[in-house]
Write a structure and sequence with these properties.
Largest sheet: 4 strands, antiparallel
Order of helices and strands: HHEEEEEEHHHHHHHH
Strand order of the largest sheet: 4-3-2-5
Number of strands: 6
Oligomer: single chain
Shape: extended
């Protein structure tokens, strides 16, 4: 005991603390230095100034003439102008900002002439769209995963063979196969069948995002089942007996007595599982869902900004998972105070 106490005191020594800080800084410098050396070794040119357009950008719009014709009229329309063109295809109207054109009424036009050039409104960039899709899919999958996990966890500890064996089969099949394989099965097998049935009945087919959400929800739910089961089994059996003796049914006992107490136990592993769900959503790019990772790959293909975009992608995932982690810690503190 005295030796353990001396070790703790030694670790809390100001000198040891200072060495720890220096060691951490040295480690970070080593990591960033390695990345910098790699870019120097391959003669990579950093272009961080191009990154903002992947979040928000203003589109450069150029309108061209498609056939021989004439400028019929130029009419003011609030802060813009309506340019009316008459050609062999009929009459067309283009609404453009002031100062974006250099035409007068009666001018002749030919194919390829520029009608107007101007900068459009602000639009979300490629990375912003991918981030939104990742957040949307992760949030919906988390909700469904929690519902599946709670229902499956309650069934897992049930004495009814149908409920218990069904939950065990679900958990073992889903946890025993790779997520990527499940995504492919949901999209190409289940998705093809369901969309065919829907279209035969005059119902629009489901977008690929929903099959990705199904796959992530069912995959996550299988792990949540075991987390919920462990939380339920951590509650003293006497509480179940007391609730049943008070006239509560099995499910009433679970949802009003056991699960609220088990929440404190299962919150930390649940947070880890949902953090994994956010990262696992990157596999949905395999079924043409433009989530954050697929958007990053598309950006790299068109711009060749490999280092910047992958680093940015990692930072965005880190922000999402860190925010979720902080939220769960807040919930832990709130539940601990009650």
């Amino acid at each position: 005991m005295e030796q353990n106490m001396s070790n703790i005191k030694r670790l809390s020594n100001p000198t040891a603390y200072a060495f720890s800080v220096v060691g951490f800084i040295a480690l970070m410098l080593l990591v960033f230095g390695s990345v910098y050396y790699a870019t120097v070794a391959v003669e990579y040119q950093w272009r961080w100034f191009k990154i903002p357009k992947y979040f928000m950008y203003q589109e450069a719009i150029t309108l061209y003439v498609e056939a021989d014709g004439e400028i019929e009229s130029i009419v003011p329309n609030k802060d813009k102008f309506d340019i009316v063109i008459t050609d062999e295809d009929g009459q067309k109207t283009f609404t453009v900002p002031a100062g974006s054109f250099d035409w007068d009424e009666g001018d002749s036009i030919s194919p390829g002439d520029i009608i107007a050039q101007y900068t459009g409104d602000w639009k979300p960039g490629l990375m912003a769209k991918g981030l939104w899709v990742t957040l949307k899919i992760s949030f919906i999958s988390t909700i469904f995963g929690i519902l599946l996990g709670i229902i499956g966890g309650v069934a897992r500890v049930s004495n009814t063979p149908f409920l218990k064996w069904s939950a065990i089969t679900y958990v073992e099949i889903i946890r025993g196969s790779p997520l990527l394989v499940q995504i492919m099965i949901f999209y190409f097998v289940l998705g093809t069948t369901m969309n065919k049935i829907l279209m035969m009945n005059g119902i629009p087919k489901l977008p690929s995002e929903w099959y990705g959400i199904m796959a992530l929800s069912i995959f996550t739910g299988a792990y949540v089942v075991e987390i919920v089961r462990a939380g339920i089994e951590a509650i003293h059996p006497g509480q179940v007996e007391a609730a049943r003796s008070a006239g509560m049914g099995y499910f009433q006992c679970m949802f009003y007595i056991i699960l609220p107490q088990a929440l404190k136990t299962i919150l930390p592993p649940l947070a880890g599982q949902f953090i994994n769900l956010i990262k696992d959503s990157s596999l949905l790019g395999m079924i043409s869902i433009r989530e954050l990772t697929k958007a990053t790959r598309e950006g790299i293909t068109t711009s060749l900004q490999t280092f910047e975009l992958w680093i940015l992608c990692a930072i965005l995932y880190l922000l999402m998972t860190f925010t979720l982690s902080m939220f769960v810690q807040y919930l832990e503190r709130r539940t601990a105070q009650k």
